[in-house]
Amino acid sequence: MFKLLRLLVMVLLVPVLLAGCLAPGAESVEPRVPTDAEVEQYNASVAPAERIVCRREIPVGSNIPKRLCRLVKDVEETSTFHREQLRRSLH
User: Fold this and answer.
1) Which domain holds residue 41?
2) Cβ(55)–Cβ(68) under 8 Å?
3) I need a surface site. Which of 34, 52, 60, 74 has the fewest CB within 10 A?
């Protein structure tokens, strides 16, 4: 009796829970990537280190390229950090 009741609850409850995950208007996990025009307009009004650069990258574990936009200063800091880590590991 309890097995039948549990099975009935699972059959009725699981689709309802899954449908809630697919509800329209749910917030996206990934932030919106700015368009080329938005990036160009922003870059025209800020200092060179504060400018945004966008490029297409293939994330690890995927073959689907994604457009990623970063601040120039963040790209430079990341590059400096990785160069330093590589230098330390080689010495």
Assistant:
1) 33-91
2) yes
3) 60
80: in domain:
yes
Tokens 């010495």, residue located: 91
- Tally the domains of the chain: 1
The length of the chain, given as a count of residues: 91
Q: Does residue 40 fall inside a structural domain?
A: yes
**Cα-Cα-Cα-Cα dihedral of 65, 71, 74, 76, to 10°?**
90
Quick one: which H or E segment has residue 71?
strand 66-71
pLDDT tens-place string over residues 35-82: 999 999 999 999 998 999 999 999 999 999 999 999 999 999 999 999
pLDDT band at 17 (very low <50, low <70, confident <90, very high): very low
Q: Is residue 68 in a domain?
A: yes
